[in-house]
Design a protein that fits this description.
Four copies of one chain form a homotetramer. Chain A has six helices and no strands. The first copy, chain A, is mostly helical. Chain A has a domain of 79 residues: MazG-like (Helix Hairpins, Orthogonal Bundle). The first copy, chain A, starts with 7 loop residues before the first helix and ends in a 10-residue tail after the last helix. Chains in contact: A-B, A-C, A-D, B-C, B-D, C-D. Chains A and B meet through helix 1, helix 2, helix 3, helix 4 and helix 5 of A and helix 1, helix 2, helix 3, helix 4 and helix 5 of B.
Chain lengths: 119, 119, 119, 119
Protein backbone atom coordinates (compact mmCIF):
# COMPACT_ATOMS: atom_id res chain seq x y z
CA UNK A 1 0.00 0.00 0.00
CA UNK A 2 1.52 3.28 -1.08
CA UNK A 3 1.63 5.97 1.59
CA UNK A 4 1.23 9.63 0.78
CA UNK A 5 3.23 12.08 2.77
CA UNK A 6 2.83 15.55 1.33
CA UNK A 7 -0.28 17.48 0.30
CA UNK A 8 -0.95 19.40 -2.90
CA UNK A 9 -0.88 22.61 -0.87
CA UNK A 10 2.55 22.01 0.59
CA UNK A 11 4.00 21.22 -2.87
CA UNK A 12 2.34 24.29 -4.35
CA UNK A 13 3.66 26.55 -1.63
CA UNK A 14 7.16 25.11 -1.84
CA UNK A 15 7.17 25.63 -5.63
CA UNK A 16 6.04 29.22 -5.21
CA UNK A 17 8.86 29.96 -2.79
CA UNK A 18 11.37 28.15 -5.02
CA UNK A 19 10.43 30.20 -8.08
CA UNK A 20 10.23 33.48 -6.17
CA UNK A 21 13.71 33.08 -4.65
CA UNK A 22 15.17 32.43 -8.12
CA UNK A 23 13.10 35.04 -9.99
CA UNK A 24 11.79 32.24 -12.21
CA UNK A 25 8.18 33.37 -12.53
CA UNK A 26 9.24 35.08 -15.75
CA UNK A 27 9.89 31.63 -17.31
CA UNK A 28 6.80 29.96 -15.87
CA UNK A 29 4.22 30.98 -18.45
CA UNK A 30 1.40 28.43 -18.70
CA UNK A 31 2.62 27.58 -22.21
CA UNK A 32 6.15 26.81 -21.02
CA UNK A 33 4.81 24.78 -18.10
CA UNK A 34 2.59 22.79 -20.48
CA UNK A 35 5.61 22.11 -22.69
CA UNK A 36 7.61 21.01 -19.65
CA UNK A 37 4.82 18.73 -18.43
CA UNK A 38 4.70 17.02 -21.81
CA UNK A 39 8.49 16.66 -21.98
CA UNK A 40 8.63 15.08 -18.52
CA UNK A 41 5.75 12.71 -19.30
CA UNK A 42 7.72 11.51 -22.33
CA UNK A 43 10.87 11.06 -20.25
CA UNK A 44 8.80 8.89 -17.94
CA UNK A 45 7.46 6.93 -20.92
CA UNK A 46 10.99 6.37 -22.23
CA UNK A 47 11.54 3.88 -19.41
CA UNK A 48 8.87 1.65 -20.97
CA UNK A 49 10.07 2.06 -24.57
CA UNK A 50 11.24 -1.48 -25.28
CA UNK A 51 9.51 -3.59 -22.66
CA UNK A 52 6.17 -5.37 -22.92
CA UNK A 53 3.07 -4.61 -20.89
CA UNK A 54 3.72 -7.77 -18.88
CA UNK A 55 7.33 -6.85 -18.16
CA UNK A 56 6.19 -3.42 -16.99
CA UNK A 57 4.32 -5.10 -14.13
CA UNK A 58 7.54 -6.36 -12.55
CA UNK A 59 10.04 -3.58 -13.10
CA UNK A 60 13.54 -3.90 -11.63
CA UNK A 61 14.07 -1.62 -8.64
CA UNK A 62 16.43 0.73 -10.49
CA UNK A 63 13.81 1.34 -13.19
CA UNK A 64 11.15 2.11 -10.59
CA UNK A 65 13.54 4.66 -9.07
CA UNK A 66 14.02 6.34 -12.46
CA UNK A 67 10.28 6.31 -13.17
CA UNK A 68 9.56 7.75 -9.72
CA UNK A 69 11.94 10.61 -10.42
CA UNK A 70 10.10 11.45 -13.65
CA UNK A 71 6.73 11.15 -11.89
CA UNK A 72 7.96 13.75 -9.43
CA UNK A 73 8.77 16.13 -12.30
CA UNK A 74 5.35 15.58 -13.87
CA UNK A 75 3.63 16.32 -10.56
CA UNK A 76 5.70 19.42 -9.88
CA UNK A 77 4.91 20.96 -13.27
CA UNK A 78 1.26 19.99 -12.93
CA UNK A 79 0.96 21.63 -9.51
CA UNK A 80 2.80 24.71 -10.76
CA UNK A 81 0.56 25.01 -13.83
CA UNK A 82 -2.55 24.60 -11.67
CA UNK A 83 -1.34 27.40 -9.43
CA UNK A 84 -0.63 29.71 -12.39
CA UNK A 85 -4.09 29.03 -13.88
CA UNK A 86 -5.79 29.19 -10.47
CA UNK A 87 -7.17 25.71 -10.96
CA UNK A 88 -7.90 23.19 -8.19
CA UNK A 89 -6.52 20.16 -10.00
CA UNK A 90 -7.64 17.76 -7.26
CA UNK A 91 -11.24 18.90 -7.61
CA UNK A 92 -10.96 18.72 -11.42
CA UNK A 93 -9.79 15.12 -11.05
CA UNK A 94 -12.63 14.26 -8.67
CA UNK A 95 -15.16 15.81 -11.06
CA UNK A 96 -13.62 13.94 -13.99
CA UNK A 97 -14.03 10.65 -12.18
CA UNK A 98 -17.70 11.43 -11.66
CA UNK A 99 -18.04 12.21 -15.38
CA UNK A 100 -16.24 8.96 -16.20
CA UNK A 101 -18.59 7.01 -13.93
CA UNK A 102 -21.49 8.23 -16.08
CA UNK A 103 -19.61 7.64 -19.35
CA UNK A 104 -18.56 4.14 -18.39
CA UNK A 105 -21.49 2.46 -16.59
CA UNK A 106 -20.33 -0.72 -14.87
CA UNK A 107 -22.63 -3.04 -16.82
CA UNK A 108 -21.49 -1.71 -20.20
CA UNK A 109 -17.81 -1.05 -19.53
CA UNK A 110 -16.97 -4.15 -17.51
CA UNK A 111 -13.86 -5.82 -18.93
CA UNK A 112 -13.74 -3.61 -22.03
CA UNK A 113 -11.30 -0.87 -23.00
CA UNK A 114 -13.67 0.61 -25.60
CA UNK A 115 -13.87 4.42 -25.61
CA UNK A 116 -17.09 5.80 -24.14
CA UNK A 117 -18.11 7.30 -27.47
CA UNK A 118 -18.14 3.76 -28.93
CA UNK A 119 -19.78 1.96 -26.00
CA UNK B 1 -5.39 31.60 -4.45
CA UNK B 2 -6.25 28.15 -5.68
CA UNK B 3 -7.98 25.96 -3.13
CA UNK B 4 -7.35 22.26 -2.96
CA UNK B 5 -10.24 20.04 -2.04
CA UNK B 6 -9.26 16.42 -2.44
CA UNK B 7 -6.21 14.52 -1.25
CA UNK B 8 -3.97 12.12 -3.16
CA UNK B 9 -5.31 9.31 -1.01
CA UNK B 10 -8.95 9.95 -1.84
CA UNK B 11 -8.18 10.09 -5.58
CA UNK B 12 -6.13 6.90 -5.38
CA UNK B 13 -8.85 5.06 -3.50
CA UNK B 14 -11.59 6.25 -5.86
CA UNK B 15 -9.51 5.13 -8.87
CA UNK B 16 -8.97 1.71 -7.31
CA UNK B 17 -12.69 1.23 -6.78
CA UNK B 18 -13.45 2.55 -10.28
CA UNK B 19 -11.08 0.06 -11.93
CA UNK B 20 -12.13 -2.86 -9.72
CA UNK B 21 -15.84 -2.38 -10.48
CA UNK B 22 -15.10 -2.38 -14.22
CA UNK B 23 -12.47 -5.14 -14.18
CA UNK B 24 -10.02 -2.69 -15.72
CA UNK B 25 -6.91 -3.68 -13.81
CA UNK B 26 -6.07 -5.94 -16.74
CA UNK B 27 -5.58 -2.83 -18.94
CA UNK B 28 -3.71 -0.78 -16.34
CA UNK B 29 -0.21 -2.09 -16.84
CA UNK B 30 2.40 0.52 -15.89
CA UNK B 31 3.38 0.74 -19.57
CA UNK B 32 -0.17 1.52 -20.68
CA UNK B 33 -0.58 4.06 -17.89
CA UNK B 34 2.68 5.74 -18.91
CA UNK B 35 1.44 5.90 -22.52
CA UNK B 36 -1.85 7.38 -21.33
CA UNK B 37 -0.12 9.95 -19.16
CA UNK B 38 1.95 11.09 -22.12
CA UNK B 39 -1.08 11.23 -24.42
CA UNK B 40 -3.04 13.35 -21.94
CA UNK B 41 -0.10 15.70 -21.35
CA UNK B 42 0.01 16.29 -25.12
CA UNK B 43 -3.73 16.91 -25.26
CA UNK B 44 -3.19 19.53 -22.58
CA UNK B 45 -0.33 21.05 -24.57
CA UNK B 46 -2.49 21.20 -27.68
CA UNK B 47 -4.41 24.09 -26.11
CA UNK B 48 -1.21 26.16 -26.26
CA UNK B 49 -0.20 25.11 -29.78
CA UNK B 50 -0.63 28.42 -31.60
CA UNK B 51 -0.53 31.01 -28.83
CA UNK B 52 2.45 32.90 -27.50
CA UNK B 53 3.88 32.65 -23.98
CA UNK B 54 2.36 36.05 -23.23
CA UNK B 55 -1.08 35.08 -24.49
CA UNK B 56 -0.96 31.95 -22.35
CA UNK B 57 -0.90 34.17 -19.25
CA UNK B 58 -4.38 35.51 -19.94
CA UNK B 59 -6.30 32.55 -21.34
CA UNK B 60 -10.00 32.92 -22.14
CA UNK B 61 -12.21 31.14 -19.61
CA UNK B 62 -13.26 28.40 -22.05
CA UNK B 63 -9.63 27.49 -22.72
CA UNK B 64 -8.90 27.29 -18.98
CA UNK B 65 -11.84 24.91 -18.65
CA UNK B 66 -10.44 22.67 -21.40
CA UNK B 67 -6.95 22.77 -19.91
CA UNK B 68 -8.34 21.96 -16.46
CA UNK B 69 -10.07 18.90 -17.89
CA UNK B 70 -6.79 17.64 -19.36
CA UNK B 71 -4.94 18.40 -16.10
CA UNK B 72 -7.49 16.17 -14.37
CA UNK B 73 -6.66 13.33 -16.77
CA UNK B 74 -2.93 13.77 -16.23
CA UNK B 75 -3.36 13.68 -12.47
CA UNK B 76 -5.62 10.62 -12.54
CA UNK B 77 -3.17 8.60 -14.62
CA UNK B 78 -0.27 9.79 -12.47
CA UNK B 79 -2.00 8.75 -9.26
CA UNK B 80 -2.98 5.41 -10.80
CA UNK B 81 0.57 4.73 -12.01
CA UNK B 82 1.96 5.65 -8.59
CA UNK B 83 -0.43 3.19 -6.98
CA UNK B 84 0.52 0.40 -9.41
CA UNK B 85 4.24 0.99 -8.82
CA UNK B 86 3.75 1.47 -5.07
CA UNK B 87 5.35 4.90 -5.25
CA UNK B 88 4.55 7.86 -3.01
CA UNK B 89 4.57 10.49 -5.73
CA UNK B 90 4.09 13.35 -3.27
CA UNK B 91 7.21 12.35 -1.38
CA UNK B 92 9.10 11.90 -4.66
CA UNK B 93 8.11 15.47 -5.62
CA UNK B 94 9.20 16.81 -2.24
CA UNK B 95 12.55 15.01 -2.54
CA UNK B 96 13.00 16.31 -6.09
CA UNK B 97 12.50 19.87 -4.93
CA UNK B 98 15.23 19.36 -2.35
CA UNK B 99 17.53 18.01 -5.06
CA UNK B 100 16.65 20.98 -7.27
CA UNK B 101 17.45 23.39 -4.44
CA UNK B 102 20.99 21.98 -4.38
CA UNK B 103 21.25 21.93 -8.19
CA UNK B 104 20.05 25.50 -8.55
CA UNK B 105 21.57 27.58 -5.73
CA UNK B 106 19.79 30.95 -5.50
CA UNK B 107 22.91 33.01 -6.18
CA UNK B 108 23.78 31.10 -9.37
CA UNK B 109 20.31 30.38 -10.76
CA UNK B 110 18.64 33.74 -10.07
CA UNK B 111 16.91 34.98 -13.23
CA UNK B 112 18.43 32.29 -15.46
CA UNK B 113 16.81 29.31 -17.16
CA UNK B 114 20.14 27.56 -17.73
CA UNK B 115 20.13 23.83 -17.01
CA UNK B 116 21.93 22.85 -13.79
CA UNK B 117 24.56 20.90 -15.68
CA UNK B 118 25.56 24.13 -17.42
CA UNK B 119 25.39 26.48 -14.40
CA UNK C 1 17.44 26.76 -49.11
CA UNK C 2 17.61 23.38 -47.47
CA UNK C 3 18.83 20.59 -49.72
CA UNK C 4 17.52 17.08 -49.48
CA UNK C 5 19.91 14.27 -50.11
CA UNK C 6 18.32 10.96 -49.30
CA UNK C 7 14.95 9.52 -50.28
CA UNK C 8 12.33 7.85 -48.11
CA UNK C 9 13.10 4.59 -49.90
CA UNK C 10 16.80 4.63 -49.12
CA UNK C 11 16.12 5.37 -45.44
CA UNK C 12 13.50 2.62 -45.29
CA UNK C 13 15.81 0.08 -46.86
CA UNK C 14 18.73 1.03 -44.64
CA UNK C 15 16.52 0.67 -41.55
CA UNK C 16 15.35 -2.75 -42.68
CA UNK C 17 18.90 -3.96 -43.10
CA UNK C 18 19.92 -2.42 -39.78
CA UNK C 19 17.15 -4.19 -37.88
CA UNK C 20 17.61 -7.49 -39.70
CA UNK C 21 21.34 -7.63 -38.96
CA UNK C 22 20.66 -7.05 -35.25
CA UNK C 23 17.56 -9.26 -34.99
CA UNK C 24 15.63 -6.21 -33.78
CA UNK C 25 12.36 -6.83 -35.62
CA UNK C 26 11.15 -8.52 -32.45
CA UNK C 27 11.27 -5.13 -30.65
CA UNK C 28 9.80 -3.11 -33.51
CA UNK C 29 6.11 -3.66 -32.90
CA UNK C 30 4.03 -0.73 -34.19
CA UNK C 31 3.15 0.10 -30.57
CA UNK C 32 6.79 0.31 -29.52
CA UNK C 33 7.65 2.37 -32.59
CA UNK C 34 4.77 4.76 -31.82
CA UNK C 35 6.05 5.11 -28.26
CA UNK C 36 9.56 5.78 -29.57
CA UNK C 37 8.32 8.37 -32.05
CA UNK C 38 6.53 10.24 -29.27
CA UNK C 39 9.55 10.06 -26.97
CA UNK C 40 11.85 11.46 -29.67
CA UNK C 41 9.39 14.24 -30.56
CA UNK C 42 9.43 15.28 -26.90
CA UNK C 43 13.23 15.21 -26.79
CA UNK C 44 13.16 17.54 -29.78
CA UNK C 45 10.66 19.80 -28.00
CA UNK C 46 12.85 19.92 -24.91
CA UNK C 47 15.24 22.18 -26.80
CA UNK C 48 12.50 24.82 -26.92
CA UNK C 49 11.36 24.41 -23.32
CA UNK C 50 12.41 27.77 -21.90
CA UNK C 51 12.78 29.98 -24.95
CA UNK C 52 10.18 32.23 -26.54
CA UNK C 53 8.69 31.84 -30.01
CA UNK C 54 10.81 34.78 -31.14
CA UNK C 55 14.02 33.32 -29.74
CA UNK C 56 13.29 30.05 -31.51
CA UNK C 57 13.62 31.85 -34.84
CA UNK C 58 17.29 32.59 -34.26
CA UNK C 59 18.64 29.51 -32.51
CA UNK C 60 22.36 29.29 -31.73
CA UNK C 61 24.16 26.81 -33.98
CA UNK C 62 24.70 24.23 -31.22
CA UNK C 63 20.97 24.12 -30.50
CA UNK C 64 20.19 23.62 -34.21
CA UNK C 65 22.63 20.70 -34.20
CA UNK C 66 20.86 19.11 -31.21
CA UNK C 67 17.43 19.68 -32.76
CA UNK C 68 18.60 18.20 -36.06
CA UNK C 69 19.75 15.09 -34.26
CA UNK C 70 16.30 14.65 -32.69
CA UNK C 71 14.60 15.33 -36.03
CA UNK C 72 16.65 12.47 -37.46
CA UNK C 73 15.35 10.14 -34.75
CA UNK C 74 11.76 11.22 -35.38
CA UNK C 75 12.13 10.58 -39.10
CA UNK C 76 13.77 7.19 -38.62
CA UNK C 77 11.00 5.93 -36.35
CA UNK C 78 8.36 7.37 -38.66
CA UNK C 79 9.84 5.64 -41.72
CA UNK C 80 10.18 2.41 -39.77
CA UNK C 81 6.59 2.55 -38.52
CA UNK C 82 5.34 3.29 -42.06
CA UNK C 83 7.22 0.25 -43.31
CA UNK C 84 5.79 -1.99 -40.59
CA UNK C 85 2.23 -0.80 -41.30
CA UNK C 86 2.77 -0.87 -45.07
CA UNK C 87 1.84 2.81 -45.31
CA UNK C 88 3.17 5.28 -47.90
CA UNK C 89 3.69 8.16 -45.49
CA UNK C 90 4.66 10.56 -48.27
CA UNK C 91 1.38 9.96 -50.05
CA UNK C 92 -0.53 10.26 -46.78
CA UNK C 93 1.12 13.65 -46.25
CA UNK C 94 0.28 14.77 -49.78
CA UNK C 95 -3.36 13.70 -49.30
CA UNK C 96 -3.51 15.47 -45.93
CA UNK C 97 -2.37 18.70 -47.53
CA UNK C 98 -5.17 18.41 -50.05
CA UNK C 99 -7.66 17.84 -47.22
CA UNK C 100 -6.21 20.84 -45.38
CA UNK C 101 -6.57 23.00 -48.49
CA UNK C 102 -10.31 22.29 -48.41
CA UNK C 103 -10.55 22.74 -44.64
CA UNK C 104 -8.69 26.02 -44.69
CA UNK C 105 -9.81 28.01 -47.74
CA UNK C 106 -7.46 30.93 -48.36
CA UNK C 107 -10.12 33.62 -47.93
CA UNK C 108 -11.29 32.30 -44.56
CA UNK C 109 -8.01 31.11 -43.08
CA UNK C 110 -5.75 33.98 -44.12
CA UNK C 111 -3.78 35.27 -41.12
CA UNK C 112 -5.76 33.19 -38.60
CA UNK C 113 -4.70 30.18 -36.54
CA UNK C 114 -8.29 29.17 -35.80
CA UNK C 115 -8.99 25.42 -36.07
CA UNK C 116 -10.97 24.43 -39.17
CA UNK C 117 -13.88 23.22 -37.06
CA UNK C 118 -14.26 26.79 -35.74
CA UNK C 119 -13.68 28.67 -39.00
CA UNK D 1 6.21 -3.60 -49.91
CA UNK D 2 5.26 -0.01 -49.25
CA UNK D 3 5.63 2.33 -52.20
CA UNK D 4 6.71 5.90 -51.82
CA UNK D 5 5.21 8.44 -54.12
CA UNK D 6 6.27 11.93 -53.09
CA UNK D 7 9.68 13.33 -52.24
CA UNK D 8 10.71 15.46 -49.31
CA UNK D 9 11.23 18.36 -51.71
CA UNK D 10 7.73 18.26 -53.12
CA UNK D 11 6.21 18.17 -49.62
CA UNK D 12 8.43 21.02 -48.49
CA UNK D 13 7.52 23.15 -51.49
CA UNK D 14 3.82 22.45 -51.13
CA UNK D 15 3.94 23.40 -47.44
CA UNK D 16 5.73 26.65 -48.27
CA UNK D 17 3.07 27.60 -50.80
CA UNK D 18 0.28 26.56 -48.41
CA UNK D 19 1.62 28.77 -45.59
CA UNK D 20 2.42 31.70 -47.88
CA UNK D 21 -1.09 31.79 -49.36
CA UNK D 22 -2.61 31.83 -45.87
CA UNK D 23 -0.06 34.20 -44.30
CA UNK D 24 0.71 31.51 -41.76
CA UNK D 25 4.47 31.96 -41.52
CA UNK D 26 3.79 34.22 -38.54
CA UNK D 27 2.53 31.16 -36.60
CA UNK D 28 5.24 28.78 -37.77
CA UNK D 29 7.98 29.61 -35.32
CA UNK D 30 10.28 26.62 -34.75
CA UNK D 31 8.97 26.44 -31.17
CA UNK D 32 5.33 26.20 -32.29
CA UNK D 33 6.23 23.62 -34.93
CA UNK D 34 8.08 21.55 -32.32
CA UNK D 35 5.01 21.72 -30.06
CA UNK D 36 2.80 20.65 -32.99
CA UNK D 37 5.09 17.77 -33.88
CA UNK D 38 4.94 16.48 -30.33
CA UNK D 39 1.15 16.87 -30.16
CA UNK D 40 0.67 14.93 -33.40
CA UNK D 41 3.06 12.18 -32.32
CA UNK D 42 0.95 11.75 -29.18
CA UNK D 43 -2.27 11.65 -31.22
CA UNK D 44 -0.66 8.86 -33.23
CA UNK D 45 0.32 7.06 -30.03
CA UNK D 46 -3.22 7.34 -28.70
CA UNK D 47 -4.28 4.67 -31.20
CA UNK D 48 -2.06 2.19 -29.35
CA UNK D 49 -3.09 3.25 -25.83
CA UNK D 50 -4.93 0.12 -24.71
CA UNK D 51 -3.66 -2.58 -27.05
CA UNK D 52 -0.73 -4.92 -26.54
CA UNK D 53 2.46 -5.03 -28.61
CA UNK D 54 1.17 -8.20 -30.21
CA UNK D 55 -2.20 -6.71 -31.10
CA UNK D 56 -0.44 -3.74 -32.67
CA UNK D 57 1.06 -6.08 -35.27
CA UNK D 58 -2.36 -6.89 -36.71
CA UNK D 59 -4.29 -3.65 -36.54
CA UNK D 60 -7.80 -3.46 -38.01
CA UNK D 61 -7.91 -1.50 -41.25
CA UNK D 62 -9.77 1.48 -39.73
CA UNK D 63 -7.07 1.89 -37.09
CA UNK D 64 -4.33 1.82 -39.74
CA UNK D 65 -6.21 4.58 -41.58
CA UNK D 66 -6.32 6.72 -38.43
CA UNK D 67 -2.65 6.06 -37.68
CA UNK D 68 -1.71 6.92 -41.27
CA UNK D 69 -3.50 10.24 -40.95
CA UNK D 70 -1.50 11.09 -37.82
CA UNK D 71 1.74 9.96 -39.49
CA UNK D 72 0.97 12.43 -42.25
CA UNK D 73 0.67 15.25 -39.71
CA UNK D 74 3.94 14.25 -38.05
CA UNK D 75 5.73 14.25 -41.39
CA UNK D 76 4.27 17.58 -42.48
CA UNK D 77 5.37 19.34 -39.28
CA UNK D 78 8.77 17.66 -39.46
CA UNK D 79 9.34 18.79 -43.06
CA UNK D 80 8.12 22.29 -42.19
CA UNK D 81 10.41 22.53 -39.16
CA UNK D 82 13.36 21.30 -41.21
CA UNK D 83 12.66 23.99 -43.78
CA UNK D 84 12.44 26.73 -41.13
CA UNK D 85 15.72 25.60 -39.52
CA UNK D 86 17.39 25.03 -42.90
CA UNK D 87 18.10 21.42 -42.00
CA UNK D 88 18.31 18.50 -44.43
CA UNK D 89 16.42 16.02 -42.28
CA UNK D 90 17.03 13.15 -44.71
CA UNK D 91 20.77 13.62 -44.43
CA UNK D 92 20.51 13.95 -40.65
CA UNK D 93 18.68 10.60 -40.59
CA UNK D 94 21.29 8.97 -42.82
CA UNK D 95 24.09 10.30 -40.59
CA UNK D 96 22.27 9.12 -37.46
CA UNK D 97 22.04 5.61 -38.87
CA UNK D 98 25.79 5.62 -39.41
CA UNK D 99 26.30 6.76 -35.81
CA UNK D 100 23.93 4.04 -34.63
CA UNK D 101 25.85 1.42 -36.62
CA UNK D 102 28.94 2.33 -34.58
CA UNK D 103 27.02 2.50 -31.31
CA UNK D 104 25.34 -0.84 -31.85
CA UNK D 105 27.86 -3.23 -33.39
CA UNK D 106 26.11 -6.34 -34.72
CA UNK D 107 27.95 -8.77 -32.46
CA UNK D 108 27.11 -6.86 -29.28
CA UNK D 109 23.62 -5.61 -30.09
CA UNK D 110 22.19 -8.71 -31.72
CA UNK D 111 18.83 -9.57 -30.16
CA UNK D 112 19.18 -7.04 -27.35
CA UNK D 113 17.28 -3.80 -26.76
CA UNK D 114 19.91 -2.49 -24.33
CA UNK D 115 20.83 1.18 -24.76
CA UNK D 116 24.23 1.74 -26.35
CA UNK D 117 25.57 3.41 -23.21
CA UNK D 118 24.95 0.14 -21.34
CA UNK D 119 26.20 -2.28 -24.00
Amino acid sequence: MSEITYSFESLRDALRAFAAERDWDQFHSPKNLAVSLSVEAAELLQNFQWISDEQSKTLPRDVVVRVRDEMADVLLYLVRLADKLDVDVSEAAQTKMEVNALRYPVDKARGRSTKHTDL
